[in-house]
TrEMBL record:
Keywords: Methyltransferase, Transferase. The keyword Nucleus does not apply. This is Trans-aconitate 2-methyltransferase. One of its GO terms (biological process) is methylation. The keyword Transmembrane helix does not apply. The gene is tam_5. Coiled coil: none annotated. Residues 1-23 are annotated as: Disordered. Its EC number is 2.1.1.144. One of its GO terms (molecular function) is trans-aconitate 2-methyltransferase activity.
Length: 272
């Protein structure tokens, strides 16, 4: 890992010490994977790459997508990277390697991969545009990029006043703390159109927040970890945060969670 890499949110989302995953952060990222994996697997299953594809999973978190890719491409290989490997659930596959790697500063040779996927990472990184450019360089001619990135627009129009203000407060606090940009993914259609990638397709989905849903667990744990920062925002009070958390246990509460903007596009194949 590069020493000068861009770490984000260390003081908010503790990843634990001495090689031990922080149990709360592990639960939070597990809940995110439970909420998003079914859609990610369906998206990735539709990408037309061969069984011998060389895959890169950037910011692998617990590694659920990396393990799925390794099973999907038994004759291929999967490199799963993260700045911090403590959250990874070790479950070995012969074609899967985990690599401590900072996507903002550590490199791969150009044209190394046939499929590159990342999820809920780039909005966190202040150098997100440059990182997108680096990932495109790592694609082989004809290789596919699949981005699944978070966007705040469902919160802006939520009819639940306290939930809306708390959720937007979370994203404002992340922005203030380490430069998270919760509007960046909404701009992906433009960025991809300008990127030189071709055959792009895009969609957005918002897994629901209701009592007991995986997205509710993820968002509740996110709010709880950010509690001190939320209380510094002038638009939020302790009562607001309490009310917002209580909604996650209310069987009558039902709303859209944070959006996932999914983009699939490929590097032009080499001309023959
Ligand atoms: C919100 S989690 C998402 C995990 C996983 N992609 C998922 O969707 O389940 C973001 C992940 O990105 C990793 N990460 C943060 N900064 C990174 C960087 N500069 N390079 C590589 N990984 C990074 C974090 O350690 C964390 O595991």
């Amino acid at each position: 890992m590069g020493d000068n890499g861009e770490k984000y949110g260390d003081e908010i989302f503790s990843h634990g010490d001495d090689g031990e995953a922080d149990p709360i952060e592990k639960e939070r990222v597990d809940a995110l994977a439970e909420a998003l994996d079914p859609a990610s697997f369906a998206t990735l299953a539709a990408v037309p790459v061969g069984k011998d594809a060389r895959c890169l999973e950037v910011g692998a978190g617990t590694g659920s997508v990396a393990r799925w890719l390794a099973d999907r491409f038994p004759k291929g290989s999967v490199t799963a990277t993260d700045l911090d490997l403590d959250l990874i659930e070790e479950d070995e596959r012969p074609n899967l390697r985990y690599l401590r790697h900072d996507v903002t500063s550590d490199d791969f040779p150009p044209s190394s991969f046939d499929l590159i996927h990342t999820r809920f990472l780039l909005p966190h990184l202040p150098s997100r545009d440059a990182v997108l450019g680096r990932m495109i360089q790592w694609l082989a001619p004809g290789g596919w990029l699949v981005l699944e990135e978070s966007a705040l627009f469902p919160f802006e129009s939520s009819p639940h006043d306290c939930f809306r203000r708390t959720s937007l407060g979370v994203l404002a606090a992340l922005g203030r703390s380490f430069g998270h940009d919760a509007r960046w993914a909404r701009n992906l259609p433009t960025l991809i159109a300008e990127s030189g990638l071709v055959e792009a397709s895009m969609s957005a989905a918002c897994p629901p927040i209701s009592a007991g849903s995986a997205m509710a667990r993820f968002w509740r744990l996110t709010i709880e970890q950010l509690w001190p920062e939320l209380l510094e925002l002038p638009e939020l009070s302790e009562d607001d945060a309490d009310t917002a958390l209580a909604q996650f246990d209310d069987p009558g509460f039902f709303d859209l969670g944070i959006a996932t903007v999914t983009v699939t596009a490929r590097r032009p194949p080499a001309s023959t």
